[in-house]
């Protein structure tokens, strides 16, 4: 079924291209032909995706005949888009992470998208859920990423099955640090979440269908408190430190100061550059507890609610983004797993890094995209930092964070 | 040659004239460039304003009188555009609830909420889309059922099956009897018309176009102007508009996803003044903010003056090398320096703790963090004080000091009674502006401590300045609240303006004394 849909898209692309070519006397591949009419489709993307997209949109340009402009926005893409849409400007399509969906949708900046059942089935199920806000799909996914455990195989040959094993293996390696993962003076809810979830903590109650209830905050649930007590314990033992931050987590691993690092696909460039022998595996949970589930981050395409070229923006996002070709190209550029299952299978074949991260992502939950999530990051992170630093007990940290989050969500 | 001839012809004016013509031509070109979108948007007030500005500019430079005006006009326009307008807009925003969840207009919010109610009908058909016109010129959707390949024409009356349509390889209609099929170029040009066409298929179902396909959808939500409410027929939910808060609320008080921007009067200001959760941190931040600004000025000034006096001694050797070295911290970009300092203060791996064999958690304790930002900011700021003190010292009249020496005042007394008061006359305005600068020294805090430490549950950190606090409210990781952040900014503006005004008044009195 899935194959057939893709086939139709491909054939349709070719046929339309031929039709467009017939209408013109010029060389069908020349730019003149592709700009056979004045329409323009504008896409905003960040610096890593822009070059790949520029390549890919050429197919779309030549088949449909609409000129596609990909504009690069470094760093401030997320707020830029909101501001632009408010002013009645901005692109037709924006490429970004799924957790922007809540904010964008509540600002009325993006339009809902309807995918056929076949199209949904072709995508990773969690990736579809990740872009769903209030029961509507707002984005089409192309890549998945999550944290994993990166291990220096020379220092620690065996993949640990539990977090306790990880600690003893890290200590046995005789390195300065047992493990590096981002904490920082402000804490880091993203990298803390796998351990938090392993102890049974949750952020917002899931109704089972993937809808989160912002009024049910689980940071101070029994599991949440247990997790924060674990943070305090690990902090007291010197396993976690608030001085591990973005500036040293990867360098320490690369310099061999630690055998283990909890990080994402972005770390691999440096690790490979250093010529280390490494393996990516799942983050182990605590002994006798749940498996550690990292956040799944999904990258995808949104359609602006103010798109000036809505018809072609919808066509691009609903049909062209879901081609194996684009997903593979984007995956190669970013080193992330494609969201299209067929492309993911093709991409991970023979790629142990991707397989490792995919294994680590088996239990992953999509990072909550509801607007209430914006109120979680800071209090959660600071509570984690306090617990790790011993500034407060785990229970105090968890209850204060939960209270702050509840206050903020209630507005 | 050319130069000489120009001069003999008395033609500095000729060259000036050419420059003037060129600049005015650029102004005229910019005016036309700016006018076109204004005309397109029918923004006649904007156009009138632009015309007035251009007229003033041309009038000022095309006549030979009013020389001062020629200098004042560009400055005034830039002042209005980049200083006064932002202040007015900030004040305007501070009276609204503008922020996450309240970004749209009411119409936009209604549109978004209603649009989110369009769902594909269960097992609904999906179609490949072509668009055309019937013989009578009626806009028609030409649809191919993706399941069975049947072809349909969709108009405002509904769907009718069509026979004898020509399909391309994918199944899309390329020609049909009695219809003119649009090319993609036509579709691109006329997609606005397409957006207005609704093709019903049942009581509350219709054909929804999405790209070059379409599906049968059901619109479950509708807005009713009479009750100013949105009803979802599928779930039975009714959201009533609350114009005071800019949200659609159910009777249970659950808000719809999208809200809109409304004027909430003085609420943001009242929040700062009355809400203990906000007032408490606000006063604390304010006190530390004064300490930080005063401390930065004091330390940089004392160290800067001390080094300047040392280098100003005639017996001092190697002053050039010292001067060069001392300017270095000032010459390096402070962004980079602050990030380096932040690394040096790392408790476990930082240079400072390593070097002095300390175990201070610089970012973790309120006072250690405050000491940290003051140390770094002093290091960054004193070369400036050193420079201006050195200049002022060299400009001091030597006769006063010599007279003092004859009267028997030397060393400390001479410095205290003669040098310092004389220096302060010229330096006080600079110290005040340095105070005002440090009062809003966003970079020093944001890049070094980022406001840390934060006590559990606090919104404000131990080293937060008002400006970093306001910034976090507006653009922080928690949801954006531009209205509140603007109110805090207005407070900052008032505070800095008051302090500066008082200080300048005191200085003026001081000048009278000496």
From TrEMBL, chain A:
A GO term from the CC aspect: ATP-binding cassette (ABC) transporter complex, substrate-binding subunit-containing
Keywords: Signal, Sugar transport, Transport
Lineage top rank: taxon: Bacteria
Any GO BP: maltodextrin transmembrane transport
Span of the signal peptide: 1-20
One Pfam family per UniProt: SBP_bac_8
Gene3D superfamilies xrefs: Periplasmic binding protein-like II (3.40.190.10)
Family: Belongs to the bacterial solute-binding protein 1 family.
Name of protein: Maltose ABC transporter substrate-binding protein
Origin species: Glycomyces paridis
TrEMBL record, chain B:
Topology versus the membrane: Multi-pass membrane protein
Record-annotated membrane-spanning stretches: 12-36, 42-62, 69-89, 286-312, 324-344, 379-397, 418-439, 482-504
Gene Ontology CC terms: maltose transport complex
Top-rank lineage group of the source organism: Bacteria
Chaperone among keywords: no
Keywords: Cell membrane, Membrane, Sugar transport, Transmembrane, Transmembrane helix, Transport
Record's subcellular location: Cell membrane
Main subcellular localisation: membrane
Function: Part of the ABC transporter complex MalEFGK involved in maltose/maltodextrin import. Probably responsible for the translocation of the substrate across the membrane.
Similarity comment text for this entry: Belongs to the binding-protein-dependent transport system permease family. MalFG subfamily.
Protein name: Maltose/maltodextrin transport system permease protein
Organism expressing this protein natively: Glycomyces paridis
């Amino acid at each position: 079924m899935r194959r057939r849909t893709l086939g139709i898209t491909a054939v349709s692309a070719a046929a339309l291209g031929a039709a467009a070519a017939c209408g013109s006397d010029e060389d069908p591949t020349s730019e003149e032909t592709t700009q056979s009419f004045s329409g323009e489709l504008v896409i905003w993307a960040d610096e890593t995706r822009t070059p790949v997209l520029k390549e890919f949109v050429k197919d779309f340009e030549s088949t449909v005949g609409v000129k596609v402009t990909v504009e690069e926005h470094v760093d401030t893409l997320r707020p830029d888009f909101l501001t632009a849409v408010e002013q009645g400007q901005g692109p037709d399509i924006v490429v970004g992470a799924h957790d922007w969906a809540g904010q964008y949708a509540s600002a009325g900046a993006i339009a809902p998208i309807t995918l056929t059942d076949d199209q949904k089935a072709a995508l990773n199920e969690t990736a579809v859920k990740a872009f769903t806000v209030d029961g509507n799909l707002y984005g089409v996914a192309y890549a998945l990423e999550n944290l994993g455990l990166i291990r220096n195989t020379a220092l620690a040959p065996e993949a640990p099955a539990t977090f306790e094993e990880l600690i003893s293996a890290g200590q046995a390696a005789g390195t300065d640090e047992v493990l590096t993962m981002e904490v920082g003076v402000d804490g880091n809810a993203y990298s803390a979440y796998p351990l938090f979830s392993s102890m049974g903590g949750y952020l917002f109650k899931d109704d089972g269908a993937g809808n989160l209830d912002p009024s049910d905050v689980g940071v101070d649930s029994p599991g949440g408190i247990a997790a924060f007590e674990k943070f305090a314990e690990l902090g007291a033992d010197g396993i976690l430190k608030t001085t591990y931050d973005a500036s040293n987590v990867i360098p320490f691993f690369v310099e061999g100061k630690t055998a283990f690092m909890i990080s994402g696909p972005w770390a691999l460039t440096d690790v490979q550059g250093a010529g280390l022998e490494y393996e990516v595996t799942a983050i182990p949970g605590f002994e006798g507890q749940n498996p550690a589930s990292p956040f799944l981050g999904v990258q995808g395409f949104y359609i602006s609610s103010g798109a000036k070229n809505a018809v072609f923006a919808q066509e691009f996002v609903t049909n062209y983004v879901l081609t194996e070709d684009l997903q593979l190209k984007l995956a190669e550029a970013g080193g992330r797993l494609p969201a299209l299952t067929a492309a993911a299978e093709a991409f991970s074949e023979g790629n142990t890094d991707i397989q490792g991260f995919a294994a680590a992502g088996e239990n992953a939950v999509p990072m909550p995209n509801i607007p209430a999530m914006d109120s979680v990051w800071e209090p959660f992170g600071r509570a984690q930092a306090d617990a790790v630093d011993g500034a407060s007990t785990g229970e105090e940290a968890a209850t204060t964070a939960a209270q702050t989050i509840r206050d903020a969500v209630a507005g | 040659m050319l130069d000489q001839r120009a001069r003999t012809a008395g033609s500095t004016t000729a060259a000036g004239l050419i420059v003037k013509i060129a600049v005015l031509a650029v102004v005229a070109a910019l005016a036309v460039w700016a006018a076109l979108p204004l005309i397109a948007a029918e923004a006649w007030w904007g156009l009138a304003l632009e015309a007035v500005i251009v007229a003033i500019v041309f009038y000022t430079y095309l006549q030979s009188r009013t020389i001062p005006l020629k200098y004042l006009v560009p400055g005034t326009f830039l002042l209005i555009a980049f200083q006064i307008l932002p202040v007015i807009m900030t004040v305007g925003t501070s009276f609204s609830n503008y922020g996450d969840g309240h970004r749209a207009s009411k119409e936009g919010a209604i549109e978004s909420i209603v649009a989110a109610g369009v769902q594909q009908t269960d097992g609904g058909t999906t179609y490949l889309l072509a668009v055309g016109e019937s013989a009578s010129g009626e806009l028609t959707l030409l649809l191919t059922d993706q399941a069975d390949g049947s072809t349909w024409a969709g108009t405002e009356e509904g769907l009718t099956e069509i026979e004898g349509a020509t399909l391309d390889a994918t199944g899309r209609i390329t020609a049909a009897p009695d219809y003119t099929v649009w090319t993609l170029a036509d579709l691109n040009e006329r997609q606005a018309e397409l957006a207005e066409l609704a093709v019903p298929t049942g009581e509350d179902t219709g054909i929804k176009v999405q790209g070059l396909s379409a599906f049968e959808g059901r619109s479950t939500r509708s807005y009713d102007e009479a009750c100013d409410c949105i009803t979802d027929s599928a779930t039975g939910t009714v959201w009533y508009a609350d114009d005071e808060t800019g949200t659609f609320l159910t009777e249970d008080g659950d808000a719809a996803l999208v809200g809109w921007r409304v004027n909430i009067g003085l609420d943001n200001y009242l929040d700062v003044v009355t809400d203990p959760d906000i007032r408490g941190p606000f006063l604390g931040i304010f006190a530390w903010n004064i300490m930080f600004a005063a401390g930065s000025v004091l330390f940089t000034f004392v160290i800067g003056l001390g080094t300047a006096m040392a280098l100003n001694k005639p017996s001092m050797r190697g002053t050039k090398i010292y001067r060069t070295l001392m300017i270095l911290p000032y010459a390096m970009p402070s962004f980079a320096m602050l990030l380096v300092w932040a690394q040096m203060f790392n408790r476990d791996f930082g240079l400072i703790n390593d070097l002095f064999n300390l175990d201070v958690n610089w970012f973790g304790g309120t006072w250690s963090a405050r000491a940290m930002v003051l140390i770094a900011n002093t290091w960054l700021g004193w070369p400036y004080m050193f420079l201006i003190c050195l200049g002022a010292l060299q400009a001091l009249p030597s006769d006063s000091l010599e007279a003092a020496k004859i009267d028997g005042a030397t060393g400390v007394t001479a410095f205290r009674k003669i040098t310092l008061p004389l220096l302060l006359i010229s330096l006080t305005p600079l110290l005040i502006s340095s105070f005002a600068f440090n009062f809003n020294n966003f970079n020093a805090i944001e890049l070094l401590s980022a406001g840390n430490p934060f006590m559990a549950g606090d919104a404000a950190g131990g080293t937060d300045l008002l400006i970093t606090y306001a910034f976090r409210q507006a653009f922080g990781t928690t949801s954006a609240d531009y209205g509140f952040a603007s109110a805090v900014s207005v407070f900052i503006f008032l505070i800095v303006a008051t302090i500066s005004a008082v200080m300048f008044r005191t200085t003026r009195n001081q000048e009278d004394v000496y």
